Amino acid sequence: QVQLEESGPGLMQPSETLSLTCTVSGFSLTSNGVGWVRQPLGKGLVWMGTIWAGGSTNYNSAVQSRLSISRDTSKSQVFLKMNSLQPEDTGTYYCARHSSVQLTYFDYWGQGVMVTVSS
Amino acid sequence: EIVLTQSPTTMTASPGEKVTITCRASSSVSYMHWYQQKPGASPKPWIYETSKLASGVPDRFSGSGSGTSYSLTINNMEAEDAATYYCQQWNYPLFTFGSGTKLEIK
Lengths: 119, 106
Description:
Chain A is an all-beta fold. In chain A, 0% of the residues lie in helices and 50% in strands.
């Protein structure tokens, strides 16, 4: 069955670089894209970026200058790196699989990892 | 960039009541997806491509709309439907979520 699992540090300091890993199973990263979605505590969902099945990426313009998404297909892992962290980057980070349909949506989600940015 | 505005922000419904949540897009779009999220849980796909129910979604849910106005409707509200619902659109290369509608049960 399809599964996604996020991992990474829970507490970060301002100005540090966040590194998160999404380990997937039940599908191939060369068949489906994977996106990252952030949710500040008590607030709504914000798409951060996506790495597509072909390896290309798209980013939310609000974080594009600080964000990088990459992958290791042999390990079935997708990576998020975001630099210059600020307290407003605090929230739960989800990775989610893109459906295979043309009008793609997120059909499977990880359980999320909480990241707190605080000095 | 397309902005999605959901209404209402919060609502309360009684069991058996009909519920409609609206998502308005700042520009015309050709479809809408919806997600359900309960406290402490990840979002779940709920309705995709405007009107298709995701796997396991009860048929008391339906979706409709076109252009700039889309809606999610629940016929006969049940306690388990209490959640926050988000609409979402993909206007290549950007994904956008609505701000969410929190639906509570009376």
